[in-house]
Every structure is written in structure tokens, then in C-alpha cells.
User: Fold these one by one.
Assistant:
Number 1:
Amino acid sequence: MNLIVSAIGQGLLWAVLGLGLFLTFRILDFPDMTVEGTFPLGAAASVAAIAHGFSPLVATLIAIGVGMLAGLITGLLYTKGKIPILLAGILVMTAAYSINLRIMGRANLSLLGKPTLFKTHFLQSLPMYFDSVTLGMIMIVVVTLLLIYFLQTDLGQTFIATGDNEVMARSLGIKTDNMKIMGLMVSNGMISLGGALVAQNNGYADVNMGIGIIVIALASIIIGEVAFGELTLNQRLIAVTLGSILYRFVLLIVLNLGFNANDLNLLSAIVLALCMMLPVFRKKFSFKHMMKRGLETND
Amino acid sequence: MTKPILKLDDVVVNVNQNTPEQITILNHLNLTVNEGDFITVLGSNGAGKSTLFNSIGGNLKIDGGSITVRDKDITHFSEERRTHFLSRVFQDPKLGTAPRMTVAENLLLAKKRGEKRHLKPRGLKPNMAEFKTLTETMRNGLEHRLNTPTGSLSGGQRQALSFLMATLKRPDILLLDEHTAALDPKTSQQLMEATNDRIKEEKLTCLMITHHLEDALKYGNRLIVLQDGQISFDVSGAEKASLTQEQLLTFFADIEQ
């Protein structure tokens, strides 16, 4: 039971990564590697801020701010510097590694004995693991509602249009460069928020905690899509959170099969690859398809 | 009606500028478009038709000359800024609409062409009635598909939608870049008729590239032919109305030689 509650809590905390990446990967339609740098950046910034005596809430806001800054830099490199998005993201991600070491002063910084968002009286009075479920739930509801509101505004619609058809968007007077920069900023702000929450929940920040983050974030998006199929945009946002929780359950199962935590990145990659290939498999092995092939002449 | 709305003065566009491979696409081109003109643009491949449109539309920087709209120099205006007064329909049905957004969402985007967009709710519902009457004018069933993603429309419906989007907020200048070329003959003719009706009704100023000599003669009040980056033939009014396909063909044959 505890394991399941813990998995749901983790799924909720990590879901904000999936939602952040959804903005770039699915709406703007490009892969943003910056997230591998902004996740530890958010962790490092919040932990360092708390260590310097800031309140956990302020520290978390600082984390969001620096994450947005990283997104801004990627956006400028991509739109104004004309560097391909994949490389722009990798550049900022690489630079962030050094920044994170600078911020923390070392590779690993602990929050032992320091306040965190999870150490409030109310959250501590809950049964074990319910602190992350509660905080994760509050955050996800707020973030999802804000996103749903934003995407239905005039600005949100132009943001969607930019990812959907850039030529058309420009011909309607939409400044597509600004939209991409905005998307990268909001997305990385959210990833950084995820880093800040995960670090406070774990009680430490580590400079290497960003490795494989994009795979985990993608997994929640893809698992949500594979599990729930055709959905409206608003439903898809909710599916990302459910996908994130499902992903934690998958990890729980494979860990119970005897794999250990060191295998997690390998397993994450395999889970994601399988999910992404599912449409191909479905096509290949579908009964209808086999019937049709059987009826086709061989010439 | 004869007030000039768009003027191109001595416009030059080169590719590979300052290299040995430099090619001049628009060669000191001059063109004055009057308010209410419906101009059909003819020319062989490589004559510079698309370059002319891209220069007017602003997604191509010109290397010489100037472009003025209503006596205002817009030579250095960005593409986005020009959308305040200009709209265009592309040849490729895929270019004119956002595939994952519904027909109504696309129309709503187009309704705010060139405007600043804020964090205000988009307000789709109050517009639905207007969009329904508007799409009905296309006579191709678009009005029943307002809530369908445009990606699943037929090419003809998508192109009709692109055209509606370009004219929904009245443009001072409308550019049609072979917008019926990718469609089958019947659909193409249907859209061409609807285009003509709307241009006349709204008294739009329009330039239309076409490869159909028939269309070029049938529609519009003026016809220009582009050749080697210049306008080699320009007729309007009664002279254009009496022009025949044979005369045009002879003219093209002369160009070839």
C-alpha cells in the first residue's frame, strides 16, 4: 500500500515535467534538450536558496525564474541565433552543468535540518507519503488549470498555431519567434519547478540528477497518449499526469522483478521506446491488416 | 477607384548576391496597383511571379527599389507588420491552415489577423453564427465541419477555408498564389467562382497568379505578364475584356523566341 501511495506521489510531483515538455514537444512540435539542464538547475537553485536562508516558497519561485531564464537563452539561440533547436538545447544543458556546480559549490548539496515545502505542519501530520501526494496534487491542479486557461486565450491560440503551421501563423501576423521563446520559457520554468520539488522531497540536490529527464518527461506524455487514445487538448493535459503516475507503477513493477535503481535509465528508455513504437506494431500485427495482406495479389 | 494603393518602384531582387552565380529575379520592376484592381498575373516558370509576391508580402528582402502602400513606404516592414493590410493564399492547401485546429479556431485566428493578442479568453462561441453564414458562401459543405480539425478536410475545403481566412478581416491587398492549382478541375472552378464573387462583393484589391489562360482572361479587370523579372505586358479595362486566348498564346510564343 505504501509503495502505491509513494508511486502516486512521485507520479504527481514528476507530472509537471511532462506538462512542461508537452508545451514544446507536442504543441510547438520540437524536442527541447534544455530540460536535462533545467531540472537540476531548479533543484540546485532551490536547495542553495534554502541553504542561504530563503523560505522554501521563495526558493521554489527562484527556481522557476532561473528555469525560465535558461529557456529564454535556448529560445534566443534558436530563433535569433539560428542554431538548430536540438543543438541550442544541448548547448544550454551543457552550460547549465557548470552553472549548477557554481550554484551549489559542490556536486551534491543536502537539505538536512533545513525547512522544505514538505515540512509544513499540515503535510507532516499526514500519513507517510501523503505529503507528496497532497503537494503534488495541489501543484498539478493549479498548473493544469492555468495551462487550460492559457491555451484558450487569444495568446494561447496563436501559440498553438505557431506549432501547428508556422507559415500560416506568420501570414496572420503572429510573431512566431516570440511564441517559441515564450513556450521555451514557460516549459523550462515548469521543468525547473519539478526539479525544485523533487529535490526538496528527496532532501538534496545532485548535479547529475538531470540525466535521462527528457526520457521520463516524454514517457508520461507518450504513456498518457497510448493509454487514453483520442482526446481533446484539455483531456490530453490531464492524461499527461495520469501517464506520469502509470509510469511510476511500471517502474514499481520492474523494480519488483529484481532490477535495481541503477537500471532505471535503461528501463525508462526501453519503456519509452516500446510505447513510441506501439502504433507501428499495432499496424503491423492488426488482424485487419493481415487479412488485407492475405488478399493482396503477389505481383 | 483609380487611386493607387500599391506601388513598386524599380524593385530588384537577386539571389546569390555578390557571388559569381548571382541571378537577377526581379529586374528593376515597376508596378502600380489601383484600389479595386483585380489583376491576374501570368508568366512562365522562373519569370519571377512568386518572387514578386514574396517581395510584396515581406518574406523576402528586396535588394533595390521601394514598395509603397497608400503613399507609405513599407520597404523595410517585417512580414508580420504587413499583415495589418495584406493577406495571402498559398498554392499548397497545407500552408494556409493549421491542421490540428478546428475550422472555427482557424477562422477565429484569421479574424484577428495583424492584431496584438493578449491573455484574454478567445471567445469562440459568439462567433460561431457568423462563421456558419460565412462558410455557407463557399457552397462545399464547410459549414457542417466547423468543429472538425482542418487536417481531415478535403483539399478543396481546406483551400476554400484558406481563402475565407485571408478575406475574413478585409485586407487592403489580397495576394492569391495559384490558389486553385492543386485542386481537381471541378473543385478548382468552384473555388474560382466563389473567389470572384467575394472579391467583387467586398471590392477587394487583388493580385492573382495563375497558369490558366482561361481564368486569367475571364476574371479580373487587368492582366499582367511577367517576363525576365519585368512586366512585359499590361492590359486593363475594355482592352483586357476583348483580349482572346489566341492573342495571349501568340504573345507567349513571341516570348519563347
Note: The beta strands of chain A are 108-110, 204-206.
Number 2:
Amino acid sequence: MATLAPGVQTGPYHAVLDHIHPEPTSFIRKYIFSIDHKIIGIQYMITGAVFFIISGLLAEIIRTQLLTPNGLLVRPDTYNSIYSMHGSSMVWFVVIPLLTGAFGNFVMPLQIGARDVAFPWLNLVAFWIFPVAGVILFSSFLVGAPDAGWTEYPPISLMGPPGTNLWCIAVFMIGISSTMTGINFLVTILKMRAPGMTLTRMPLFVWAQFATTPLSFIATTALGGALAALFIERVFGVPFYDPKRGGSPLLWQHMFWFYSHPAVYIMIIPGFGIISEVLPTFARKPIFGYKMIAFSSVAIALLSFSVWAHHMFTSGMVPWLQLPFMIITMLIAIPTGVKIFSWMATLWGGAIRWKTPALYAAGFIITFTYGGLTGFFLAAVPLDYHEHGTYFVVAHLHYVLYGGSIMSLFAGAYYWWPKMSGRMYNETLGRIQFWMVFIGFNCTFTPLHWLGLLGMPRRVPNYDPSYQFWNVFASVSSYVMALGTLLFFYILVDSFRNGKKAGPNPWGARTLEWMIASPPPYYNFKKIPAVLAAPYDFGNPLPYIGLDAADGAVEATPTHSSHPVPTH
Amino acid sequence: MAVSVAKQGYHLGHHDEHDANHDEVIYRETRDMRLTGFVLFLGTDVVLFSAFIFAYVYLRTSIAPVWPPMVDGHQLPRLDTAFAAVNSVVLFGSGVTMHYALEAWKHALKRRFNLFMALTILLGAGFLGGQAYEYAHARIGGWSGNTFGASFFTLTGMHGLHVFIGVWFLIALWIQTSRGVYDDHRFFGLTAGTLYWHFVDVIWVVLFFLFYLW
């Protein structure tokens, strides 16, 4: 680090950064209607965890139903509502809010050396829309929950029970919340980085949030239009989708997937960011291909807007459009592959410490790659004709959404838990929890590929008896996964009670959030530091100047920093 | 918002910097952030309109055999382009007066500003009146009758709602100026209001082409 930039760049925004708004004293302003990004992040996390448990229970009802060929537990129409609500809730009320709202809010401003996001009040409003929308969504069970799947294709959704209207309202509201967060984060990242933090010195988690923001506010708004049209068609009879009245069900599919394919990347790019933070920290090595990882997120985000119709190969779409959609979809494998190989090269030759976050990161690489490969199958038009609407699709999407998104959420939760709570968790229990989830997950969803290839259709409450063995196998494995999830919450409670103090930087990480006390003080940084380089040069001195030691800040010497590493 | 937060704030280790120049820097920085945020918000609004425009174009070109569509064996009439053209001139005129209002404010010409604000609000309200007249006289089967009515009334209704909100936005800004919220070099609200008003104009250009000229 002897060749540091001679003059520290002082960014044009340092005057705003230097200001600290006073910490509120009342309980309500401090913890309920807080404008502090850290509290809001934790609020997102708690709310998301509640919805995660509810949606997980719905999933277990599905798996229990499928223990016997004729359905064990619920009536077929109830079953329709249960898988519809499971999907809707997991996508909009668990994964997206947790990856952007929760981790984005808590970690991103700390990593760019800011005291808060650009619009703290907007952040508060965006959060409070989330639980209200969630209550509206689940209250649809009282009047008849939506039963056309999470995609709510017309004309079935036009005939659906009254709860479908509540579904429209709830998803529209969470879309507004997501839009607000997207705008807020983009302005924050563009305008509030600490002096000297150029774009290519940003931590990769910040890059991931940066690439996600346009998806949040462009794609989500398009879905808002589709939902508003569905709502007014159901309530006022305004024809958009009803084929009997000159509308088109395909119109919904186009509008829905124009949102929902980018949404897939809202649900995974921040996860990529988490993995890119965890891997170098636990491999004690500079991240391999920093710029490639950063730019490939942006490439994925851009490509994601032009692939939506690969969900519609069997919908009667014009055939000549299938080829370009197939090719562009397959192109996404290139930036994704760049990431996978960069992560593996980061691990290669590193002094890896297999703490729980590192286990989850490695598990993520395995399961996400597996899910990505089956995605490649589904993108191929002829294979998709065979597999569309079968359990192969269910297996694929769970490999990317659970094996990808939820695994990365677990990795992030273990990684930043000491920063959020100030306490360590029980490492042994953490490792047991990882193996329960990892084995349970793979044993649940791998057989579903085979069932899909054999022709078992998705979204049906009963099945041919010849499919029973693997269904029972999957259901039993899913209970292991569920117990693993419960163990996770026990670990957090246990950490609160018995965990030892974490200190500012228990992992010896190098990004800015680890340079201050755990949990961080209200104002984050007493003095805004200046940033001299990208954060991943393990083995070199830290690239920050101006951190205030009085504030719990460490001029950190990571515990394992002596590992000799060539710089690049 | 951020300005007031910053002004209430206290400093740690920077007590000497709290002078007028420092306030100016903070003002410029927060204005810059809010402007970026506001422009992004307008961008999301463009996407919302685009979703419905896509629906209209899709239903018109891919689904309907003829346009305007047939209802009970009769083709629906086209919309009254001449009237809408006059009404469009009213709306575009309000864009021009809004521009002059902002320019007058920048040059501290208070009376001129008041005149052009009044004109803008009147023209905006006039456009809404014209649209109400047109809604009452359009013979295309109402909002829920067919896909023509559905796309026309949904899109122009959304636009009308934006004009309606815009009129109240401008009234609120006008009241703020009379209360001394802005001066001739700190007027972020007026900039945002002007941007919003021009945005509503531009959306109308697209809608006018799609519904009256196409």
C-alpha cells in the first residue's frame, strides 16, 4: 500500500456526510418510526422473518399434502390457495424485502461510509408499507385466498375468489415500497459515498445493490400497471385480459414477466453481493476479478429486461420470437459464469476458515450453479416444451430461489449478525444448522427434477401412485430443512443470551462497516473516513484514513493478516 | 427535508464550520440529491404509463381485427381529433407559461411570477374541463364497454389525474412562495413543480399521437 494515491480525493458530497442528525430519545421515534437506516434494516429483517415462517409453514402444508397420491391434508381448492400464497409471499414479502430492504438498508450505507440513506423519511414510509401490505395479503385467507398460482394468470385469476383483489392491492403496495427503496438506494450510492470511494472502490455488495436498483424501480412499476389493470378488470369489469371481450391473457403474461424476470435478478444479484463479501473474508484473499464481478452484475441487470418471454414458450406466443428470447436467455449464463469462476478462483489457494457464512457461501455456489444449469435446460425451446408446467420447473426455481437467494441470506445473516447485535453466535450450532438446511434442501428438490422429467405436473394436489416414493422422500427431507430453519432462530436467541461480545471486527474483514463498533453507533462514523483503494487487498494495510478510534473504530489489524498474498 | 434535518443537526468536531458558506454547500448537495430522486420518480411514472401504452398497442395491433373495434356489428367512431387538438394547445400553453413563471422567479420578478403562475393553473384547470367535456361526449362505449374504451379512459384518466395533482402541486407551491419558503436562488420546489408539469405535457404528446392521430 506504499503506492497510495498522493492526494485523497474529497468528494463533492462531504458536507452532507459530515452532518449528524440528533438521536431521538423516545422509544417510538427510536425503534418504531425510526429514520435510522440500521433500525429500518432490522425492522425489515424481523418482518421478513415472520413472513418467512408463515410462508414456510404453507410450504410444509404442500409437502405434507403430497405424502400420499390422493392428497393427505387439505381440499384441492384450499391447496390451490396455499401454493399461490406460498409463492406470492416468498417472492414479494420475504426474499425481495430481505435482500434489498433488510441487508441493503443495514449494510450498504455503512459500506459507503455514509451516515444514512439519501432520503431517511422515504425509507421509513417504504418500510411501513411492507407489514401493512403483508397483513392485507394474508387477510385474503379470510375471504378466499387467490388460487391461480403466484403468477395469477387470467382468465383463471379473473374468476378467482375475492381475495385476489386483496392480492392485487398488497402486491401493488409492496411494489411501491420497492420502488421507493430503489430510488433511495440509487441516489444514496451515486451521491453519498465517502470521499475517495470511486465507483471501482465500492465494496461488491454495494455494486450489487447498485445494479439492483434500476430493476426495483423500472420493472416493479411495470408490474404495478399490470396489477392495476387486473384489479380494475376484476372490480369494474374494464376489459384488458378477458378474451371473450377483446382482451388477451397473453397481455398479462407479457406484462407480468416483463417485471418478474428482472425480479428474479432482484432476488439474486444482492445475494451475489453477499457471497462476494463473505468469500474473500474467509479465504483471506483478495477477491478474484473485482471489476468482472462488479460489471457482470450490471450486465445481468441489463440483459434481464429482454428475456421475459422465455416463460411463455408454451403460451401460444408468435414462434419467430422464441429464438431471440432463447438466445438472450442463454447469454445471461456468461456474466453469471464469470461470477461463479471468479468466486472459485477466490477460494483457490486461500486459507479458508470454514465458519458458517463461508459454508453457506460455498453451498450457495454449488446449489446456485446447479439451478443455473437447469435454467439453461428450460431456456432451450424444445426442452421447455417437454418440461414446462412440470415439477422440473418447481425444482429449478427452488434451486435458484432457495439454493441461491435464501442460502445467500443465511450467509449474510451469519456474517453480519455480530455487526448487528454486537454478539457472536454459537459456531457449532451454526455449522449443524448449515448441514441440516443444505442436506434437507438438496434431498427435497433434487428428486423433484426426476419427477418433473417423468411428467408429474406442478400445482396439482394429487398424483399418480408411481410418483409416491420420491414425493415422500422430498417431504421428509423438507421437514429436516424446516427444523434447520427453526434452529437458525434458536441460534439467534441463544446468541442474544449467551453470545460473547463480538468486538468491531470479528472476521478480520476489510469493508468499512467493520471499522466501527458493533452494533454501530447512531451516527455510524464519528468522522467520515477517506477511502484510498478497493477493500479486498488482504495482506495490505487498510485503505482508510481518518477513522476515529474514540468511537470504537479500529485501525484494524485483522487476526490473520500475516498471510502472504500477492497483490494484483 | 434533508436540509432541515441537516440544520437541526449538531456537529462532532466541526464546530468551526457552521457558517453561511457551509450552509450553502449543504443546500446545493441536498438539492442535487433531491433533484436526482425526483427525476428518477418521474422515470418510474414513465414506466407506469408505458405499461398501459403497451397494453393498448398490444390489444389494438395483435388482438382486435379492426380498430376502432366492432361492437354489436357496428364499428365504434373515432375520437374527436379537432377538439382534442385545441385542448392540447391549452395544455402546451400552460407548459410555456410555467417556463416563464420559473424564469421570472429566478430573476426575482415577483409580479410577473404571480401572473404566469395564475395563467398556468388556469390553463391546467381549463384542460381538465376540456377533458371532462370530451369524456361526456365520447361515444366509444364507456370505460368498461370494450378494449378501446378501457385503454382510452384508463390512460387519459391516469394522465388527467396527473394534471389534477399537478394543479394542486402548483397551488401548494404558490402558497409556499407567498410564505417566503423560497428565494431567488433557493427554489428547489419550484424546479420540481416545473419538471413535473413539463413531464405531464410530454406524456400528453404521446397519448395525443396514440389516440387521435394513429
Note: The CA atoms of residues 68 and 143 of chain B lie 14 Å apart.
